[in-house]
Design goal:
Blueprint (H helix, E strand, L loop, with lengths): L1 H5 L15 H29 L25 H15 L5 H26 L8 H22 L22 H19 L7 H18 L2 H7 L10 H19 L9 H17 L5 H5 L1 H20 L9 H7 L4 H21 L5
Length: about 350
């Protein structure tokens, strides 16, 4: 909005030239999201508390989690607001990638809100039935995938980290592959959201990583130098990534241990889906496996635990996802959280190194 209002004025007033630059608008997207979080956060927490919208705790979980029962949840509404408003303010709204990401965030946010509403307000412990949740996720991801494939005429070649000469063409398989990335990333972040600040930290790190990747992919000179796919217009996604970083920092202010609010599915599902959509749109889909290594680890731990238990009636881990395993081994919650953040930072740095190692 501000981009469209102020850039035309730059012909008469040079001061408005700064609004042409993605870097400037990205910085203020971060700051706007942060300010929104700080201003809305206390009010939202009070409102959730007043309406007794508190976190349910599963009986089979670690005993120390019982103290979390009743902590306000559905705080992901704050995250959504802090992503959408800065994006609308600072991004070029004529850019199709901006609307791809907004569609993803709003769509998955609505699914998460419905699930949380059933669990927390309607007191249905199962929430939205798994099959319906999955179908709705596939529907939103499918809309995004088909748009990129048919309408935007997106390049369907796959970029493989470390191998600059390998670019397999997915063709029509681009659609199910995109759906897999978006839905998989969404559910992976959801599985990770089990400790105070555990999920939002790696999300912030991953969003910051893709902020840089998106900017470089949308800059012809940088993309050519690094030998990565040049995608005209994709640099505008850096503003959405900036909003995600600011929203994550702002939410972490209230979600850090001991948490004053939890994000719920209304926060975790759209955050993961947005990362998946950004990874696809920036042509660095496989890089998400490395950038989001913590999310991958958490998901694999659940798959292994369930599969092994069905075959042998025994468990690999004391409890899954794997952060609960470390809890039951005696690690204190802040130690698990910070160590997972450190791992996320290391993985992000390794991922960025692949931009040059080709």
């Amino acid at each position: 909005m501000l981009y469209h209002l102020l850039v035309p004025l730059s012909t008469d007033y040079a001061v408005f030239n700064v609004f042409k630059y993605i870097t400037f608008r990205t910085i203020y997207s971060v700051l706007t999201a942060l300010v929104i979080s700080f201003l809305m956060g206390p009010w939202l927490i009070r409102t959730l508390s007043d309406y007794q919208i508190g976190q349910p705790v599963r009986q089979e979980g670690p005993e120390r989690h019982y103290v979390k029962r009743g902590t306000p949840t559905m705080g992901g509404v704050l995250i959504l607001f802090a992503i959408i408003v800065p994006t609308l303010l600072w991004a070029d709204l004529a850019n199709p990638y901006v609307w791809v990401l907004l569609t993803t965030v709003v769509g998955f946010g609505a699914i998460g809100f419905w699930d949380d509403y059933l669990k927390v307000i309607k007191k249905n412990p199962k929430g939205l039935a798994g099959r319906y949740k999955f179908l709705l996720q596939c529907l939103v991801a499918g809309i995004v995938a088909v748009y990129l494939y048919r309408v935007a005429g997106f390049d369907t070649h796959l970029t493989v980290p470390f191998l600059k000469g390998l670019h397999p063409d997915l063709g029509i398989l681009f659609v199910p592959f995109t759906m897999l990335v978006i839905v998989g990333a969404s559910n992976a972040v959801n599985l990770t959201d089990g400790l105070d600040g555990l999920a939002i930290g790696p999300v912030m790190i991953a969003a910051a990583t893709y902020l840089l990747v998106s900017y470089l992919s949308g800059h012809a000179r940088f993309a050519g130098y690094l030998q990565i796919p040049y995608i005209p217009g994709s640099g505008e996604m850096a503003i959405v990534c900036g909003a995600m970083v600011g929203a994550a920092m702002g939410f972490l202010w209230f979600n850090t241990y001991p948490a004053s609010v939890f994000m719920g599915d209304v926060g975790s599902l759209p955050l993961g889906a947005a990362l998946g959509a950004i990874a696809v749109a920036s042509k660095h889909e496989l890089l998400l496996v490395l950038v989001g290594g913590i999310f991958v680890l958490e998901t694999i731990s659940v798959i292994l635990q369930v599969g092994y238990f069905k075959m042998t009636r025994k468990r690999i881990f004391l409890m899954s996802p794997i952060h609960h395993h470390f809890e039951l081994k005696g690690w204190q919650e802040p130690k698990i959280i910070v160590r997972f953040w450190i791992i996320s930072i290391v993985l992000a740095l390794l991922a960025l190194s692949t931009l040059k190692l080709r």
